[in-house]
Each structure stands twice: as C-alpha cells, then as structure tokens.
Design a protein that fits this description.
alpha/beta; 28% helix; globular; two-stranded antiparallel sheet
Amino acid sequence: MGEILEQFISYLPEGGEILDLGCGSGRDSLNLIQRGFDVTAIDGSKELCELAAIHIGQDVLHMQFTELDFDEVFDGIWACASLLHIAPDEFEEIFGKVIKCLKPGGVLYMSFKHGDFSGFRNGRYFNDFRTKELKDIINKFTELEIIEIWKTPDVRNEHGEEVWLNVLVKKIDDEKQV
C-alpha cells in the first residue's frame, strides 16, 4: 500500500486530520501517526478496535459506518478495503455520511475489488464495482470531483488474479470556486 498511501498523503496538509475508516489492525493508522498526522481510527469490530488501539497507542472508536456523524472534521479519509463491505442498497446513504466527514478541500481514498459481484465471500459481505458504475455513484454527489480512478493487482500472493479499483476524490471547496 506504500505507493497509494504516498499518493493520498500528497494531497493533505502537513499534520492534517485523517479518518482511518475501517482501520482493521491499525497498520495504516500507525504509519500515518508516525508521519505526524492526527488520526482518528474507527472499525466495526470491537475485537479489532482493541487490538488496533494497542498497536497504534491510542483509542480506536468502535463504530459502524451508519453511525458516522462527523461534520467537516477531516482533511483526509483513508477507506482502504472498507467501503466494499456495504450492501448496494445502503451504499449511497453511507457514502453521503462519509463525504460529510470531509472538510471542504478534503480528500477521500477508497478501494474496491473490481468486478460485478455482490454477496458473501468467506462469511463477509462484498460489493465489487466496475469503473463506470463507481463514477456514476460519485457523480451524484456534486460536492465531489474525481481526482483519479485506477486499477492495481492484489499485492497478496494468495489472491492471484484479483484486481482492485482505487479512487481518490476531493470535496470541492465552495469558497475557492469562481
């Protein structure tokens, strides 16, 4: 995730506030904290929150995406392989809550498995996307502009041919618009 994390960071102010949405073990939160960012880490699994808190040396909020209620707090949101667990009928509502968390000018990184699948794999729900489908959803949110959408192969050896869809979007700063 190094190159992608570097790309995300390049859009953020030094020491900015970041929401690690679905932080899991806290791997990326720790990296961001060590780089001087103010990180709020959240996860839907109580057990992962407890483990991540030990790993990153700070509290991790146990919270579901439906409970998000931050209002323009974060310069960046890191949603690495987390929003892909939202069912299609809930996606736009939750995506709206995520966007509300971003400050104007803030940047969101998110990643999804590339494809058409929606359903359970190994006991967890997955919602894969194709590029056009994801662009269509993003474009419904007029406060967003797409920075970049690109595909990458899965870096884990045991996942062979899987392809990831990576997305960077920016929340438009109304004050800077002409």
